[in-house]
Design brief:
Blueprint: E1 2-3, E2 6-15, E3 18-23, E4 34-37, E5 44-47, E6 53-57, E7 64-69, E8 75-80, E9 86-90, E10 98-103, E11 107-113, H1 120-133, E12 136-142, H2 150-158, E13 165-168, H3 178-181, E14 189-193, H4 200-208, E15 232-235, E16 241-244, H5 257-263, H6 265-271, H7 288-294, H8 300-345
Parallel strand pairs: 11-12, 11-14, 12-13, 14-16
Antiparallel strand pairs: 1-2, 2-3, 2-7, 3-4, 5-6, 7-8, 9-10, 15-16
Helix pairs in contact: 1-5, 5-6
């Protein structure tokens, strides 16, 4: 397939200094991805909806790439097509840069283990990332064969995963996988996110019907070993794609009010009944959220989790705004310096 005379492909992996790109139209496993070097700074123009180059960004797994030819005749990464959706986390460094975990995905599988007990806060955090991405979140509770009441535990997770389907599965026993396989329609892309040891790679292999990702044995304490060390897109025979990701130990939040309201729809619904529109749900009179905590309608843990994620999202937004302001100041300084150099070089009248 071509785009204005240029070849197209899908980024299947990002390595140091290069990306692996699967040419558009290639079949699963039949064609090898092409290794394409990145520019010196590792940034590539991201096209807008009209095909006009915008900001230069690092490529991400799942990006649709526009390929050209370099001076040496080798493939070159000219641009990235607009991203329909993007799963984004806060950068691991101290800058305000966000990291795109996966681009152009249709479903985010939030994977959490039932053994050890699932972490409600982690599920809420990953659901917020999923809602913010624009894709459809689905919660997958793995290792259902290791607990006595997987259905009861799944019901507890459903109480906090409002608006998302929740499935308890066991790859070992082969149960609960059919609803997930039904998501693998032609042209659809699913990304798997969750902590180390949740069984993400094992789940990917089960859905792929082949050993496409390495898996680890369980440790002596019963936890799974972390084996995936990079994000990778796996094309499937039916035309779907799966993206496996390394375990997320700490997930810096990049979210907006809409994503938080989707994850905490119960809190948002209660907040609509507060006396003040800008109620912070702390000490304000007439706060419907605090009243619900007081009478047991809303668990206190749920409100604490909302507060924590709202603080993180606000902090990241402030950092991003400060970075944009600093970038604009630098742009003005450069433009002013260039103007002065131009003026100095003009002949005197």
């Amino acid at each position: 397939m071509e785009h204005g005379g240029a070849a197209l492909g899908r980024v299947v992996r990002v390595d140091r200094g290069a990306v692996l790109v699967l040419p558009a139209g290639a079949g699963s496993g039949a064609d090898e991805p092409v290794r394409v070097p990145l520019p010196g700074e590792g940034l590539v123009p991201l096209l807008d909806a009209d095909g006009v180059p915008g900001d230069a960004v690092p490529p991400a797994v799942g990006d649709h790439a526009v390929l050209g030819t370099g001076p040496d005749g080798a493939p070159a990464l000219d641009a990235l097509r607009p991203r329909r959706t993007a799963v984004v986390r806060d950068g691991a460094d101290r800058t305000s840069r966000a990291q795109v975990l996966a681009a152009n995905v249709d479903v985010v599988l939030v994977v959490e283990h039932l053994d050890p007990d699932p972490s409600p806060g982690r599920v809420e955090r990953l659901l917020t990332l999923a809602w913010r991405s624009g894709a459809t979140p689905v919660v997958v509770l793995t290792k259902a064969d290791l607990v006595p009441d997987p259905d009861g535990m799944a019901d507890e997770v459903r109480a906090i995963a409002i608006g998302a389907d929740v499935h308890a599965v066991s790859v070992a026993a082969g149960t609960g996988l059919e609803p997930l396989r039904a998501l693998l329609g032609p042209g659809r892309t699913l990304v798997v996110v969750g902590p180390s040891g949740a069984g993400k790679s094992t789940l990917v292999n089960a859905l792929a019907g082949a050993e496409v990702m390495a898996t680890g044995d369980r440790r002596a304490d019963g936890r799974g070993r972390h084996t995936t060390v990079h994000r990778e897109l796996v094309p499937l025979a039916g035309g779907a794609c799966l993206i496996d990701t390394p375990g997320l130990r700490g997930v810096g939040l990049v979210a907006d009010a809409a994503a938080l309201d989707a994850t905490f729809a119960d809190v948002a619904d209660l907040a609509a009944g507060c006396r003040f529109a800008d109620c912070a749900h702390r000490t304000e009179p007439g706060c419907a959220v605090l009243a619900a905590v007081e009478d047991g309608t809303l668990p206190a843990r749920r409100l604490d989790s909302w507060r924590r994620l709202a603080r993180e999202a606000a902090y990241q937004e402030r950092r991003a705004d400060a970075a944009l302001a600093a970038a604009e100041r630098n742009r003005v300084r450069r433009a002013t310096a260039a103007y002065h150099r131009f003026q100095q070089g003009r002949p005197a009248r």
